[in-house]
Amino acid sequence: MKILKFGGTSVGTVDSIRAVLDIVRKSQHAGDQPIVVLSAMGGVTNLLTQLAENAAEGRNFASGLQELEDRHFAVVKQLIAVKHQNPVFTRLKLYLNELEDLLQGIYNLRELSLQSKDLVLSYGERCSAFLISKIAAQYFPDALFVDATQLIQTDSHFGSAHVNQARSEQLIRTFAAAHAGKLLFVTGFIASNEKGRVTTLGRGGSDYTAAIIGAALNAEAIEIWTDVDGMLTADPRIVKKAFSLPVLSYTEAMELSYFGAKVIYPPTMIPAFLKKIPIIIRNTFNPDFGGTTIQHDSGRTALPIKGISSIADISVINLVGSGMVGRAGFSGRLFTLLAREQINVVLITQSSSEHSITFAVHPAEALRAKQLIEREFELELQANKLSQPEIEERLSVLAIVGENMKQTPGMSGKLFHALGRNGINVRAIAQGSSEYNISVIISQADLSKALNAVHDAFFAQLNKTLHVFSVGTGNIGSTLFKQIQEQYAFLLDNNDIEIKVVGISNSRKMLFSGEGIDLANWKTVLEQSGELADLPAFVARTKAMNLPNCVFIDNTASELPTLYYRELFQSNISVVTCNKIANSGRYSEYRDLKDTARKHGVDFFYETNVGAGLPIVRVLRDLMLSGDRIIRIEAILSGTISYIFNNFSGDVSFHDIVKNAQQLGYTEPDPRDDLKGTDFMRKMLILARDAGYALEPEDVQLGGILPEACLRATTVDDFYRELQAADDYFNELKSKAQRENRVLRYIGKLEAGRVSIALEFVDESHPFYALSGSDNIIAFTTERYKERPLVVKGPGAGAEVTAAGVFADLVNVGA
Ligand SMILES: NC(=O)c1ccc[n+]([C@@H]2O[C@H](COP(=O)([O-])OP(=O)(O)OC[C@H]3O[C@@H](n4cnc5c(N)ncnc54)[C@H](O)[C@@H]3O)[C@@H](O)[C@H]2O)c1
Ligand SMILES: N[C@@H](CCO)C(=O)O
Ligand code: NA
């Protein structure tokens, strides 16, 4: 035997009632012997409450009554064959007439007692259960309408009556035995006292009805049919990746519901809990889905926690007082007071010094709680043993819940890491002694970000979303977008990483979309609907959108974005950049950025600052981390100059090769940065710093490759003209090299903390002799790689390889 309970949304419309009957039919075919428990049609209980209040205030209630009639009659007309309609109309009309008389009485007296209100509300369940039993009777001849006032007996605590379990079980069993073989359609929510007056079971009442009947008849299961897929890991309106849990223990369901999961109201489960009857939450509108089973134990599952729940709006009261607060007597008095005054304390924490107690209450009760405390502890306040209670508002509670937490170390570490990494300040912490939940109080503004970040942290195997704000849409930036777009599905399917580009700016326009910008046509959208570019505003938006796992990418060659890195780190946003400016200015700046990123637990990745996509920064870092010592670094790190010397042969002029390098995307936006050696200098400086040397740019001995006139050119055009004019100079270099059987190489060296870069003529015996294209090469001679150096070699410039390096840094953020 199974109990099938359908809530208001399941019986709200003609279509949903059809779905309900389908479910009942299937259950009967499966041999479940179902008993159906029904709520009032969706919205009807609220309407009845409104009518009762209107009547008591002397306001009109006729139009509301008409609305009730219309809703029920419309269902009759659509779902009951014409020849069977009359008796149904008649009985509904009788109910509505009784209701009208009752409302008239309330109107005349201008008084609404809890008892009369229960009676008014009872018509919601009576009408719906009766009506649906009659619709069902067309297909199930054994369908029988049952008014639960005959089955469940309570005390006279109207509005939320206490059930006489023993008596009710007796009534239910007797009734069931007398009507064996019938298909019962029972009203939820309502009952009666020993005098036969109608009572109601309070919040979650129809679930309670189902649990009481299920327990009395030792049902196999109680199915609660609603409009969601079960209990979810988090509130799906905030956490888009929330998913339905297959199995939960009663305790877990209790903890999750306590903190706001509205699917069921836990006290209603107690009768089922005591008899170990599983409760299954299922979706009327998705009946093939298995839903969530709430059972005695937590089930075998790989999930360390079951869910994350929250209360969005909470106030906190702080009490501080030396030597008194925290003593057993004091907290006893405090919490007895609050309990007596029916102030629900959501969470309590006490500092280890025992001089303060913090507790959370619902905002509507905060002021009253404060006043009660002030009255109760008047003497202590006067004597300054206790300082004035303080209320803090606009806070939220977030709790992770799960029975398996107890056996799994590191759960709180994971929680605080996720919060800390995202810059979410924790105001107070409480771990239930049961260890079934860990709760934190945070600012309301952070709740959405916190829920998503914590959800990602605990259900990481189930997908991490990186939110990307990207500046610079030139050569590298646009190639990166193309690569992300091509790789999006693969990353999601194979690595559970989702990349959402949520902000884009170049020097003209900027664009934002919390849902993610479509990378198939970012260019058009940016041009057509973007706002005018404004970097401070872009950074402000990056911070204000307050998204978890947030990454700022700088694909410009401008100093401007680098001025914001620090501020971004302070807002717990990681930075990935191919722009070398930040790391190659003053040493103090470089140091400060690294320290700030580390302090805030975010990543600062710049692999492409040296050798584009080639693994160089990473290799050096690993050497340093593992305790190796750099003895010497020798390198060719200008892709542009490498390309130039590798192609400077035959008749082609130096000037033309530089132009080619620029067209191929090897040069800096301003090619003078490459040819003057500035770009190479920056790279050597960054390497030296990463190797532990606090060098300034002027410490690098930079030997040039250009004649004076070229260095003096004030514009790029002038520069190219001067290059052309210097043809003889470059040809002479070339001839000299050829005469000596050598090649031209622009080589950087780091040794004993000194960095130099110089043009060299090298012969065949030199390891840097054989290079082609835009190749870079770097040789690390270290304590451990002493005899033969560790060498990295390959293309060190170009849009594809550089964007790929930025991309790799991006997916490693937070890894
Ligand atoms: N080309 C390579 O092989 C290579 C290799 C490694 C690193 N890099 C670095 O990549 C970076 C970008 O190079 P590129 O060739 O793509 O340059 P680019 O000139 O093609 O693009 C630069 C982009 O930055 C934008 N921009 C400039 N200032 C801005 C600002 N203040 N706010 C917003 N946007 C701004 C421009 O509008 C443009 O979209 C440079 O820092 C370069 O050193 C390039
Ligand atoms: N302009 C740079 C790009 C790589 O950083 C080069 O030519 O090496
Ligand atoms: Na690199």
From TrEMBL:
> What would you give as a GO molecular function for this chain, any one?
NADP binding
Catalyzed chemical reaction(s): L-homoserine + NADP(+) = L-aspartate 4-semialdehyde + NADPH + H(+); L-homoserine + NAD(+) = L-aspartate 4-semialdehyde + NADH + H(+); L-aspartate + ATP = 4-phospho-L-aspartate + ADP
Question: What CDD domains does the annotation carry?
Answer: AAK_AK-HSDH-like, ACT_AKi-HSDH-ThrA-like_1, ACT_AKi-HSDH-ThrA_2
Q: Where is the ACT domain?
A: 319-394, 400-478
- Share an example GO biological-process annotation for this protein: lysine biosynthetic process via diaminopimelate
Which Gene3D superfamilies does the UniProt entry name for this protein? Acetylglutamate kinase-like, Aspartokinase, catalytic domain, Dihydrodipicolinate Reductase, domain 2, NAD(P)-binding Rossmann-like Domain, VC0802-like
The family this protein is said to belong to = In the N-terminal section; belongs to the aspartokinase family.
| Name of the protein | Aspartate kinase
Q: What is the lineage of its organism?
A: Bacteria, Pseudomonadati, Bacteroidota, Sphingobacteriia, Sphingobacteriales
